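tool_call: predict_structure(chain=1)
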Amino acid sequence: MNPTSYRIANKLGLINIITSNKGVSFESLVGVSNHERPAKIKKELGQLFMVGSHPYTPADYIEVDYDSTGIKISLPVNIERAIGLNAREWVQLRNLIECELAESESEEDRKIYESIKSKIQKVVPSSEYRDFQSLKELVREAIAADLAIAFTYQKRNSNEMEERIVDPCFFFEEKSQYLAAYCHSGKGIRSFRLDLIQNLRITDIRIQYHIKEETRKEHLDSFLAFLSRSEKDSDLALLRVDSSAYFHLSGVIRPEEVTRESPDSYLMKTKIIEMGWFLSLIKGYGSSVSILEPNYLKQELSRQIAEIRIPGLLT
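tool_result:
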């Protein structure tokens, strides 16, 4: 074991001993740890911020409390438990690394950043992640020109598509990415999921509705309350997802539980929230995603696919 790994292993071992024995004395620690005297242990405790922990530095989430006789450590999460990132978070991390690469003048640092970037690229290739950049740019272009936009959008609780003409207001993200806009037919502000917007275009209709800051806050508060109620009352679905679809899908639905079933597939447990939208999403992945539970959802998916009659979509 190299010296750095050895020092970190000692620190992690010390944390485990203390968290398992609340209020243990310095003298007792000398007998069960790799440290010769209490002064050495105190020095190690003072250096705990050097142990790199995700997602924050240990200074943010490891609390060390000791007096002249005993020691306590508070750990909000298990230090031995991996904290997974979804596709969007991996992409954000990659973007940060690319910024550091562009600004770094150290050849040694650049090699490290390139190595990290290549590892991230293996986890979630750029081609497998959709960030809606072109859609957002078109919407911003419409706002700058003070023109309404039109697009086709799936009806709620239905597979039918309908055209909407809206005055775009702002983007926001809450588990999924949304566009808040004033709907001409609905006569009010609505939230549209970006992944369900199709055939977006800029119209020649002038924007009539310009949102105020207080209205923006009211809409967000109301929409988040609606999402919270929907999620709380929602059933869970169990999905089998192959590796080609996993990283993109995990960035869209935010799974509650993921298990690696085999090198090529995952079991994913997630809230359904809204059945029409959920089934529309799953159908888009074809045979790469299958529903295992609940049974009523499996049956509805089979019925809809039978109506579509696309050969090979369901195996």
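agent: Residues 87-128 form one domain. Proceeding to next step.
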